[in-house]
């Protein structure tokens, strides 16, 4: 029995919109794997809970099955890292699992880091585990800092950046603060990292968490002046944001990323008052009444919903067509850019 159903609506969407658009090889720069249930609930009320409705576990075997179901006929290579954990013991086992399957499958991986780890210890763990860098997440900033006041350096301290830079490793960064990409503190610190750390590979996840049109502000007019900063498009379906990203940053610094397993969700994303809302079939993901980021649809509209992952790539295709992106640039975004960073 398959891990999940691929329905006629999914096969039709893939065949008509994605099969010829995507290159034969896909590098997915943003994938979570975990062989036990994820941490329950919000961690310090700093992150949304709806992703936990999609997959209680995502071991590497499920990931390989997922890629085969969702990308039929394509070669697929993921960049893997663990998911959120509530304590140090959880992090140890989660990172150990990622290291183990990375070695077994030959897939590159990042170490999920917390800010209190001393830099020398962090360096040893990355080298021992065969990791290519770190994933840094806003939830692990000190608990006394209000969510809207978290700065990048609160969960990605400079002493860790020094180690990453020295070794030429990668950083997968999830931006904090409700202003997301447009927030002036975020932009100032992104530009500082670009200026101060010439050797590390900085990847800004989810196109800066700019899920709604208003999340960008004037950010791209500032970020167009960067030279090395990369952006993945994971779990984002906003073609307006993708269009600005293509125009201002260019195809050589955009990475395809999925954020699997959550993009197995059957949904369509919309925007209400500057907040993104995932519209899903009624009842499919439990009671979502009190979740501001979730909404429900009934048949026949619900019957036309396909995978979040397909919606993401479809939105990027729209932006690519409007901006005249060439086929060779699509190959860069969906394969060569990631492969050059992590497979050489």
The whole-angstrom Rg is 19 Å
Number of domains: 2
**Share of helical residues:** 25-40%
Largest sheet: 6 strands, parallel
Give the mean pLDDT: 94
Classify the fold: give the CATH topology of the largest domain: TIM Barrel
Q: Helix count?
A: 12
Strand content: 5-15%
Total number of beta strands: 11
Order of helix and strand elements from N to C terminus: HEHEHEHEHHEHEHHEHEEEEHH
Q: Which strand order spans the largest sheet, edge to edge or round the barrel?
A: 3-4-5-6-7-8
Which CATH C-level class of the largest domain is it? Alpha Beta
CATH superfamily annotation of the largest domain: Metal-dependent hydrolases
Given as residue ranges, the uncertain stretches (5+ residues, pLDDT < 50) are none
Return the structural class: alpha/beta
Q: What overall form do the CA principal axes indicate?
A: globular
By CATH, the architecture of the largest domain is named Alpha-Beta Barrel
Amino-to-carboxy terminus distance: 36 Å
Overview of this structure, please?
With 344 residues, the protein is α/β, with parallel strands linked by helices. The protein is built from 12 helices and 11 strands. The protein has 2 domains: 8-265 and 308-342, Alpha-Beta Barrel (TIM Barrel); 267-305, no CATH class. The model has no long low-confidence stretch (mean pLDDT 94).
């Amino acid at each position: 029995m398959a891990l999940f159903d691929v329905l006629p609506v999914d096969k039709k969407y893939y065949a008509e919109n994605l099969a010829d658009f995507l290159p034969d090889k896909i590098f997915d720069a943003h994938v979570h794997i975990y062989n036990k249930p994820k941490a329950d609930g919000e961690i310090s009320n700093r992150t949304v809970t709806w992703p936990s409705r999609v997959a209680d576990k995502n071991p590497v075997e499920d990931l390989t099955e997922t890629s085969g179901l969702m990308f039929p006929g394509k070669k697929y290579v993921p960049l893997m890292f663990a998911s959120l954990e509530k304590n140090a013991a959880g992090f140890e086992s989660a990172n150990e699992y990622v290291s183990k399957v990375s070695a077994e499958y030959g897939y590159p991986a990042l170490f999920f880091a917390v800010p209190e780890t001393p830099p020398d210890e962090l360096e040893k763990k990355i080298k021992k585990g065969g990791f290519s860098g770190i994933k840094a997440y806003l939830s692990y900033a000190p608990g006394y800092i209000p969510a809207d006041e978290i700065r990048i350096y609160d969960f990605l301290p400079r002493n860790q950046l020094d180690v990453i830079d020295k070794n030429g490793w990668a950083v997968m960064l999830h931006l904090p603060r409700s202003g997301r990409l447009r927030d002036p503190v975020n932009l100032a610190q992104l530009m500082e990292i670009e200026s101060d750390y010439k050797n590390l590979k900085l990847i800004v996840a989810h196109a800066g968490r700019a899920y709604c049109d208003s999340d960008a502000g004037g950010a791209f007019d500032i970020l167009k002046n960067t030279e090395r900063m990369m952006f993945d498009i994971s779990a984002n379906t906003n073609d307006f944001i993708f269009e600005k990203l293509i125009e201002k940053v260019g195809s050589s610094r955009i990475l395809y990323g999925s954020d699997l397993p959550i993009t197995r969700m059957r949904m369509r994303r919309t925007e209400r008052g500057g907040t993104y809302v995932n519209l899903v079939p009624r009842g499919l993901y439990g009671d979502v009444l009190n979740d501001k980021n979730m909404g429900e649809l009934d048949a026949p509209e619900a019957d036309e919903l396909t995978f979040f992952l397909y919606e993401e790539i479809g939105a990027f295709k729209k932006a690519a067509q409007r901006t005249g992106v060439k086929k060779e640039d699509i190959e860069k975004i969906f394969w060569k850019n990631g492969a050059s960073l992590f497979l050489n």
